[in-house]
Amino acid sequence: MSDQVTVRFEELNAAQSELDKALSRAYHELERISVDFSPDEGYEHSKRIKTILHRRRAVKDELVRIQPMYDLLNKNVGKVEADYVRRVEKGDAMKKSLGCPITVEEAMREWID
Predict the structure, then answer these.
(1) What letter would DSSP give residue 72?
(2) Would you list the DSSP string of 49-62?
């Protein structure tokens, strides 16, 4: 699930970035045109900007929904990894200090046999 959330989050983030660039290009295009553009040209520019804004809003709303899961998973993955490493190191040190010569596989095989 963590991988799915991460992939989706990254896709949405990339889509929002592309839409931000498209919006910036549309604004710059609007700035460059003559002040005396026709009502039809004004309508077409506003229609294109509105379409970009609607798409951006849809992507942003989905990002808002997935952000808490993404943050939780990423925050906890680091903690889980650190906790795992700490426990393995502690267990290895304990086995070494007690002179424990067998692995868990050997212990389970002897138990089952």
Answers:
(1) H
(2) HHHHHHHHHHHHHH
